[in-house]
Amino acid sequence: xxxxxxxxxxxxxxxxxxxxxxxxxxxxxxxxxxxxxxxxxxxxxxxxxxxxxxxxxxxxxxxxxxxxxxxxxxxxxxxxxxxxxxxxxxxxxxxxxxxxxxxxxxxxxxxxxxx
Length: 115
Description:
Elements (H helix, E strand, L loop, with lengths): L8 E4 L15 E16 L5 E6 L2 E16 L8 E12 L2 E9 L4 E7 L1
Antiparallel strand pairs: 1-2, 2-3, 2-7, 3-4, 4-5, 5-6, 6-7
C-alpha cells in the first residue's frame, strides 16, 4: 500500500509530541504551514531568540534546534538579501511545536510552523 502526502511535510524523529501521525518506525510526519509574518522577538546576548510574540500570543523558546544563513544575490553589486534562520522548539497555545524564524533586513519574520 502506498501513502501519498497532499501537504508539504517533514519527517521528525523528535520525542516532542508535535501532532501528526506516527507510521511504522516511530517517525512523525509533520505538515509545514507558511506564514512569513513579522513578529516581535526577544534575544539573548548571543542573538538567539528566547521568546517571541506572534498574533498577540507569547511563545517561549524551549530550544534552538538548528541555525543557517541564506544569502541571495551575493554576486550582484547592488546589494544582497541575507537571512539568518533559526529552527526552534517553542511553547505557546497549549503545546510545543517547531517554528522557523528568520531575521531579514531589519526585522524578525515567522516563516513556517510545523503542525
